[in-house]
Amino acid sequence: MIFRQLFEPVSSTYTYLLASEATGEAILVDPVLPAWQRDLALVAELGLRLRYTVETHVHADHITSAARLKREAGSRIVYPAIDRFPGVDLNIAEGQPLAVGDLALEGLATPGHTDDHFAYRIGDRVLTGDALLIDGCGRTDFQNGDAPALYRSVHDKLFTLPDDTLVYPGHDYNGRRVSCIAQEKSRNPRLGEGRDLEAFVKLMESLRLPYPTFIAYAVPGNRACGVCPEGIPEALRIYCDAAEHAA
Ligand SMILES: [Fe+2]
């Protein structure tokens, strides 16, 4: 398998490029709008053909480049099972892996950060989106977030994977890139170390995080599969496609 982890600094998002060496077909998981040219350049450099873009969830902190990549490269737009948005080409369901060449991307319904959230397992790796971060987890206070659901998703779906499964998160704000299930089970300060459901819920309720600055634009933008909404303030244009705005 060809595997690349790409970092987008505006929203500290990791995008993952996965491709079959046998057929040259590729998937991008959680591509980010301002980085679409970078991603397509890498696809071209590696001699690949982009078949799918896949979302872990409807993001509140960035807009996907799914629609742009579809336009430029002919890729199909894949969202988790419950997101029946008009622009989606394919909804991935648990138990129905997305096959690309000799690869199979297995969706794991992991609600809690959002109600639509999926993690994706591929071989000995799991892309955990915002359900499980390295030494952390996504917040649960908007987009139908639900702390008990997140606890169950992580404990029942992710912590039951083999201990040496590599954990690739959707974000990291401190430059960390990869962990593994054993490490998160043993030392994740929110969900590991034997922390129980009640303690986790209490902790998540006590966070009092600031309301995300971009959510009012990101959510409609992502429900439209990657449209930068009209009327976006100048200061937030870095979240959109600079080339498109210059045009
Ligand atoms: Fe998120």
Main features:
247 residues; alpha/beta; 6-stranded mixed β-sheet; 7 helices; disordered C terminus; binds fe (ii) ion
Biggest sheet features: 6 strands, mixed
End-to-end gap: 37 Å
Compressed to H and E, one letter per element, the order equals EEEHEHEEEEEEHEEHHHH
Mean pLDDT rating: 95
Number of strands: 12
Q: What is Rg?
A: 17 Å
Q: Count helical runs.
A: 7
Indicate the structural class: alpha/beta
Which strand order spans the largest sheet, edge to edge or round the barrel?
A: 1-2-3-4-5-6
Helicity range? 10-25%
Bound molecules: fe (ii) ion
How much strand?
Answer: 15-25%
Shape type: globular
| Low-confidence spans | 243-247
